[in-house]
Amino acid sequence: MDLGDDCRLHVYDRVADADRLTVFWHHGTPNIGTPPAPLFPASDRLGIRWVSYDRPGYGGSTPVPGRNVSSAAEYVRRVADALGIDRFAVMGHSGGGSHALACAALLPDRVLAAVSVSGIAPYGAEDLDWFAGMSTSGEASLRAAVAGRAAKERHEATAEYDPEMFAPVDHAAFTGEWSWFDSVVGPALENGPGGLIDDDLAYVAPWGCDPAQVTAPVLLMHGGQDRVVPSSHGEWLARHCPRAELRRYPEDGHISVLHSATDALEWLGVNATS
């Protein structure tokens, strides 16, 4: 999709059926935007159409340095208009959860319901110890982002994958159906860490909107063993999104909580059509 000014957005549309409930999928960091294949059987059963895109700097989308979390609302609006989609739901995992909530906050007349799985809360929230419970490597990565683009770029130049950032239940999930992440992480990094850097800089900057603005129903799902985005973030969002429902999964981590994502699609089937 041509956005003008030499900007391009790579869009995905699975099952282009106007009778289906459209759900915009917002991917995590670092991923490309391919819709979540492990959820296809449930989404087909429930009549859900997935639409998504590579965030700028990932996959086939042109980098947009300086983008913030709220930028997602304009991208989604442009895609929805191009596809003739009036109203829709949004769903995101990890950092994608914040982008989904931003869409709900800024497109209140179009977003029917929102789901955030393992989602991150705004940086600097007064009543949240934002880094508490993060893995050592995850905290170091985001603190580098707080220090600015140059510091973040230096950090990524030497950073290595830290398996300890994930709980044992997450590693088990990676060997099952959620090995799907192999297909979205590798391509996201093929051209370097630019998309990841822009994402992390956005997470530690003002979102450009307030979760309290969200008027649509919100489902928050969070694992108690999450070392990437601690469950305190989900609890904070539950306190600040007016119509939020928080589902806690004490034995799950950042990835394994997705084993329950079919329940989120069931929830959307009720709350995005009522």
From TrEMBL:
Molecular function (Gene Ontology), one example: catalytic activity
Protein's name according to its UniProt entry: Pimeloyl-ACP methyl ester carboxylesterase
Coiled coil: none
One Pfam family of this chain: Abhydrolase_1
Record InterPro entries: AB_hydrolase (IPR050471), AB_hydrolase_1 (IPR000073), AB_hydrolase_fold (IPR029058)
Domain AB hydrolase-1: residue ranges: 23-258
